[in-house]
Amino acid sequence: MSKTSMRKLHWRSRMQDTFVPLIDSSGELGVAVGGGADYGEFPFVTAAPGDGINVGDIILEIGGTPVLGMTLGDVRGVLNSCPHPVRIKTVSPGATLCKDLRLYLSKCFTPGSVDSTLQQVIRENLFLRAVPCTTRPPRAGEIPGTDYNFVSIEEFFSLEESGALLESVALYTVVSFYKTTC
Q1: What does the pLDDT look like over 58-110, one tens digit per residue?
Q2: Phi/psi zone of residue 115: left (φ > 0), alpha (ψ -120 to 50 degrees), beta?
Q3: Rounded Cα–Cα distance for residues 36 and 40 (Å)
Q4: Quick one: three-class SS letters along the chain?
Q5: Distance of alpha carbon 24 from its chain centroid, rounded?
Q6: By the 8 A CB rule, do 104 and 122 touch?
Q7: Separation between Cα atoms, residue 57 and residue 17, nearest integer Å
Q8: So what's the pLDDT on residue 142?
């Protein structure tokens, strides 16, 4: 077996592009979604009419709008606002792209790669709704709860340990002192 065939296929090669029609005159699609950034997950299909979309598939786009990193409410809003039939891009979960949003955001990818670009889209969607936490004191004009959630170091570590944070970064200030002789 060649090295090329032994190499796992990238998740991008498993993407499915499906048009989902209304299931009847009631105006229902028959597609239901779960997950979302508010649950630390990619949005995924929880009910499907078949025909290309499967329960458990990760939803990448709805009607041309990337929904990765959006809250569940925002994903449902995009789904409900699209003209019918709704175009949905999905992919079956795998090792690199599984339901766990935190895990995907913690990985390092080559800059400019599909995965790196996808991480950027996720972060942009996250920042539409998420208010980041910081342990630094508020600066002039910053509004707690709007610009940042200002927390103590202990609160931050508690949030991190409980899994309440999608991402965390520790920044350290390095101070150097030089000994001078006179």
Answers
A1: 999 999 999 999 999 999 999 988 888 899 999 999 888 888 888 898 888 99
A2: alpha
A3: 6
A4: CCHHHHCCCCHHHHCEEEEECCCCCCCCCCCEEECCHHHCECCEEEECCECCECCCCEEEEECCEECCCCCHHHHHHHHHHCCCCEEEEEECCCCCCCCEHHHHHHCCCCCCCHHHHHHHHHHHHHHHHCCCEECCCCCCCCCECCCEEECCHHHHHHHHHHCCCCCCCCCCCCCCCCCCCC
A5: 32
A6: yes
A7: 12
A8: 92
Asked if 92 contacts 57 with a C-beta cutoff of 8 angstroms, the reply is yes
Q: What is the mean pLDDT of the chain?
A: 84
Residue 37: CB atoms within 10 Å: 25
d(C-alpha 16, C-alpha 101), whole Å: 20
Q: pTM for the full model?
A: 0.75
**Nearest-angstrom CA–CA distance, 57 and 41:** 12
Chain segment 21-72, per-residue pLDDT in tens? 776 666 677 789 999 998 889 999 998 876 778 999 999 999 999 999 999 9
Residue 36 CB neighbour total at 10 angstroms: 24
Structure tokens at 58: 């990760």
Structural domains in the chain, sorted by start: 7-97 (2.30.42.10), 133-162 (no CATH)
